[in-house]
Amino acid sequence: MDKSDFPGWHGTTIIGVKKDGKVVIAGDGQVSLGQTVIKGTARKVRRLSPGGFDVVAGFAGSTADAFALLERLEAKLEATPGQLARASVELAKDWRTDKYLQKLEAMLIVSDGSEMFVITGAGDVLEPEHDVAAIGSGGNYALAAARGMMDSDRDAEAVARAAMAIASDICVYTNGNLTVETISASGDAKPAS
Q1: Residue 24: pLDDT above 60?
Q2: Which of 10, 11, 34, 192 has the maximum number of C-beta atoms within 10 A of its C-beta?
Q3: Which pLDDT tens digit goes with each residue over 155-170?
Q4: pLDDT recorded at residue 189
């Protein structure tokens, strides 16, 4: 089958919301191939603890590629314990220059509770504006919804959950089966669900 004939894997919405000293990263569970849902319960948000420092990461894109990137990020964090920004920049540099990594098709949202970054294969390490970041097929819907709720009295988890619900209603490649992780500025990560 020619690559252009391949319908492509779709499905993922990941959102990161930073509010009141906490960061919540939430992701849906749908993986689709063309018009078919292959799996509805994928876990695309993970907690890493390299060197004893907690980091929460969510990924969009190819699962195998994302796991390769998470392993690299974990190695970078072990080399620079507690320095998420430095580890993220080192990963982005490798991703952009390494011939193997250049072929990986994924994006990451990572946070240690005080900082949050979007890492891309183009060499970007972006700190989001308005304390909200979203990636994946429904990312723009979730981003718009969350930004509209940031001035409300909702906490970070409530904003993330509501934004994901809106994205899942609009994007056919996003479902409502969420994995939610919370991490505070002190670095304490806890699974919300």
Answers
A1: yes
A2: 11
A3: 999 999 999 999 999 9
A4: 54
Give the active site residue among 12, 13, 179, 182: 12
Token pair for 16: 């990161």
Residue range 84-103, pLDDT digits in tens? 999 999 999 888 887 777 77
Active-site residue flag, 179:
no
- Full DSSP string of the chain: --GGG---EE--EEEEEEETTEEEEEE---EEETTEEEES----EEEE-GGG--EEEEEEE-HHHHHHHHHHHHHHHHHSTT-HHHHHHHHHHHHHH-TTGGG--EEEEEE-SS-EEEE-TTS-EEPPGGGEEEEETTHHHHHHHHHHHTTSS--HHHHHHHHHHHHHHH-TT--S--EEEEEETT--EEE--
Judge whether 157 and 192 are in contact, CB under 8 Å. yes
Task: Enter the tokens of residue 149.
Answer: 């709720």
Q: Cβ(133)–Cβ(58) under 8 Å?
A: no
Whole-number Å distance between alpha carbons of 116 and 56: 9
